[in-house]
Amino acid sequence: MKFFIDTANLKEIKEAHDLGVLDGVTTNPSLMAKEGITGHDKIMQHYVDICNIVDGPVSAEVISTDFEGMVREGEALAELHENIVVKIPMIKDGVKALKYFAERDIKTNCTLIFSAGQALLAAKAGATYVSPFVGRLDDISTDGIDLIDQIRAIYDNYFFETQILAASVRHPMHIIQCAEIGADVMTGPLKSILALLNHPLTDSGLAQFLADYQKGNK
Ligand code: E4P
């Protein structure tokens, strides 16, 4: 399973990259705003800055909701860097835009996926990735992980090449469950990735090893 980080924070992207396990980055307009990245030129430059840190797919989201606008924005984003993936919302014009970009070999990530039917539609339109939002479904008392399972079964039935990018991951158990099911990618915050490191027996075991070394080397 590939690990993407879900942030526009360059420091966190660098930290995950330096750990050696980072395969890509996802952003969205909210994450860009959170970092204070506003205005067309600054936003475009920020995507380039991210691409210069990570050698992997970087999702950049369009803000248009009509087909022509999405095409215009998506083409400009794709021109920025070869690793840019155009992020398109799951709406009617978005489906048309997915098809348009697929025919031109421009990679896409269909975002805001909350049902298996939406994921099926995005795959039929040729999306490179679909982003089912696990955590946001959990937030409304619906099992987000079940959706990953459902999409995996549907894509495997028909050999769809669209990759399942489990998004809105909130904690390490989400990551483990996605890996068990066979999600192609997960995207989450740095703290969820780092939380995979933790185990109290590792900490106590290491403390013991170091203490015994000190005793033996006095
Ligand atoms: C997906 O690409 C989104 O950016 C993201 O994962 C949403 O996560 P959130 O529900 O924690 O905002």
Mean pLDDT: 98
Biggest beta sheet attributes: 8 strands, parallel, barrel
The whole-angstrom Rg is 19 Å
Sum up the overall morphology in one term. globular
Structural category is alpha/beta
User: What share of the residues does DSSP label as strand, in percent?
Assistant: 15-25%
What is the number of helices?
A: 11
Strand tally, please? 8
Helix content: 40-55%
Q: What strand order characterises the main sheet?
A: 1-2-3-4-5-6-7-8
The ligands bound in this entry are: erythose-4-phosphate
Could you spell the SSE succession in H and E letters?
EHEHHEHEHEHEHHEHEHH
Distance between the termini: 45 Å
Poorly predicted sequence stretches spanning 5 or more consecutive residues: none
Key features?
218 residues; alpha/beta; binds erythose-4-phosphate
Can you describe this structure?
The chain has an eight-stranded parallel barrel, surrounded by seven helices. 37% of the residues are buried. Helices cover 55% and strands 17% of the residues. The chain has helices at residues 10-19, 29-34, 40-53, 67-80, 92-103, 116-124, 134-139, 144-158, 172-181, 190-195, 200-216; strands at 2-6, 24-26, 58-61, 84-89, 108-113, 129-132, 163-166, 185-188. The mean pLDDT is 98. It is built from eleven helices and eight strands. By secondary structure, it is an alpha/beta fold. The chain is globular, with a radius of gyration of 19 Å. It binds erythose-4-phosphate. Erythose-4-phosphate is lined by residues 6, 26, 28, 111, 131, 133, 135-136, 167-168, 187.
